[in-house]
């Protein structure tokens, strides 16, 4: 009995100590925000209750950045403000200011939570491009940089064109059927064809039903796993993890086999030929270890993680193209101007256009209006950006006041930065002409979908010509109209209306952008 009483006293004492410690930390943390720019703040909950309230007003899978943007607009906050989500997360320091965005994105590494809770669980590893070790991360980027050079990508443009012709065929087939369908479907297959071939150096036949189609199914399942509803149910979490692991095993085994097969292949890539990412990795390995036909275990794991990360990029390409078609579908004048430019630069039918591209891939650079349409669409519906973190003691100056960056998740809100009327007149208007003949310095510098500095996305060199080629080989022959139902959720125009964004990894239009397609009469 005495021992039991002593146990109860010890237990109660421990609980009192733990609660006291928590309350002390709570008070110290909340006091930090006393005089900082922020929305209405609760001493007990910080901004957790506010964020939850705003998020509940939006559809369930809408990107976190959209909810953050909604809070800033609702409370008329400046372009540097704090969001206190402690103890669930580090406090956010959010900016839509160009100078501060440059500091956040150029000067600091990714926040560890981006790796641990977002990228690494999807990839199924912690090496290569998702390594927390900056030296390994830089080394992995350096090893694949050659593949993303402008010269090498230009050699890949004819292959992009052939895949875009397959997309055209799929859309024309849909036109003969006439029923509404989610536009994201054929565009995901197009994006996978481009990405898989660029990475592996071979046609995986995603659009034609080849083995790449199953690989794409597994990649899409991984992306979908990033947006599973939050759950504390152990059984649900276990089932989600099991399903994710099965997809990861398929993708990683496929990549591992491709790496081993490529290293054992005798034929080197020609000097003036396109070099895939996997060939680039093999070439560097052979230079370092002449005569080897087997990967060492450490290098193999690093490369598998790097390639698995890049396989997920196929989803970003399809997301961007889907929103481009969404904007073109809502503005017939834009569609007409695109066709006018395409007919002017590439006269003749589609087969003649394809042959011209194969002879002279650089000719797609002669389509400034098409490029402007892409940039304007990405301004309004950008892919997500990773948060960064600064060393202790660093500050940022905003309008004469120094703000501490200690312990903060530094987030550049692209929805605010690229909508900021300090840099973009009439920011809610879809106006490709604002980019022509040359954009203003403020507009060009605030356009950050591919980031800048140490976090710049090498995929820009590959994605932009891929998007140009897809529009060139489809828009002249197909007319697209949105096919949402009258009862579908419709958000404010700045959030996309019925085509609002869903998902956090590569947010796509709601319901996959339902459309109808008709063949353009010539």
From TrEMBL:
- Domain of life where this protein originates: Eukaryota
Per its Swiss-Prot or TrEMBL entry, what cofactor is needed? heme
Q: Which Pfam families match?
A: p450 (PF00067)
**MF term (GO), any:** monooxygenase activity
Residues engaged in binding heme:
457
Which keywords has UniProt assigned to this entry? Heme, Iron, Membrane, Metal-binding, Monooxygenase, Oxidoreductase, Transmembrane, Transmembrane helix
Residue intervals passing through the bilayer: 6-24
Q: What is the species of this protein?
A: Hyaloscypha bicolor E
Q: What is this protein called?
A: Cytochrome P450
Indicate the family of this protein.
Answer: Belongs to the cytochrome P450 family.
């Amino acid at each position: 009995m005495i021992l039991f009483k002593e146990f109860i006293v010890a237990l109660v004492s421990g609980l009192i100590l733990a609660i006291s410690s928590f309350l002390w930390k709570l008070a110290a943390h909340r006091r930090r925000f006393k005089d900082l720019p922020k929305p209405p703040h609760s001493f007990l909950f910080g901004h957790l209750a506010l964020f939850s309230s705003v998020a509940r007003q939006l559809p369930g899978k809408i990107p976190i950045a959209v909810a953050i943007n909604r809070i800033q607009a609702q409370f008329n906050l400046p372009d540097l403000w704090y969001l206190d989500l402690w103890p669930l997360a580090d406090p956010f320091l959010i900016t839509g200011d160009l100078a501060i965005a440059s500091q956040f994105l150029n000067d600091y590494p990714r926040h560890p939570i981006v790796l641990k809770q977002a990228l690494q669980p999807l990839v199924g590893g912690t090496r290569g491009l998702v390594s927390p070790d900056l030296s390994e991360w830089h080394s992995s980027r350096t090893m694949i940089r050659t593949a993303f050079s402008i010269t090498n990508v230009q050699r890949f443009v004819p292959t992009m064109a052939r895949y875009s012709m397959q997309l055209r065929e799929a859309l024309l087939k849909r036109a003969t059927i006439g029923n509404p369908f989610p536009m994201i479907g054929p565009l995901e297959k197009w994006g996978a064809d481009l990405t898989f071939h660029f990475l592996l150096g071979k046609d995986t036949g995603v659009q034609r039903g080849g083995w790449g189609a199953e690989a794409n199914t597994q990649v899409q399942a991984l992306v979908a796993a990033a947006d599973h509803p939050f759950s504390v149910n152990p059984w649900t979490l276990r089932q989600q993890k099991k399903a994710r692991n099965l997809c990861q095993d398929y993708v990683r085994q496929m990549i591992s086999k491709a790496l081993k097969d490529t290293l054992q292949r005798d034929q080197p890539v020609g000097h003036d030929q396109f070099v895939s990412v996997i060939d680039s990795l093999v070439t560097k390995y052979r230079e370092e270890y002449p005569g080897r036909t087997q990967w060492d275990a450490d290098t193999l794991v690093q490369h598998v993680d790097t390639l698995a990360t890049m396989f997920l990029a196929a989803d970003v390409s399809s997301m961007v193209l889907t929103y481009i078609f969404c904007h073109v579908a809502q503005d017939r004048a834009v569609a007409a101007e695109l066709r006018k430019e395409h007919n002017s630069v590439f006269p003749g039918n589609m087969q003649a256009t394809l042959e011209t591209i194969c002879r002279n891939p650089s000719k797609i650079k002669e389509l400034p209006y098409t490029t402007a349409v892409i940039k304007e669409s990405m301004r309004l519906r950008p892919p997500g950006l990773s948060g960064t973190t600064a060393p202790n003691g660093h500050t940022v100056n905003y309008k004469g006041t120094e703000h501490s960056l200690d312990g903060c998740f530094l987030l550049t809100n692209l929805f605010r930065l690229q909508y900021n009327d300090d840099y973009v007149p009439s920011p809610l208007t879809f106006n490709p002409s604002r980019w022509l003949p040359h954009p203003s310095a403020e507009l060009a510098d605030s356009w950050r979908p591919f980031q800048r500095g140490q976090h710049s996305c090498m995929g820009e060199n590959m994605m932009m010509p891929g998007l140009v080629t897809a529009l060139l080989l489809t828009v002249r022959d197909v007319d697209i109209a949105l096919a949402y139902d009258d009862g579908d959720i419709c958000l404010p125009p700045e959030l996309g209306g019925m085509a609002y964004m869903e998902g956090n990894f590569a947010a796509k239009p709601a319901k996959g952008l339902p459309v109808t397609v008709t063949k353009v009469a010539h």
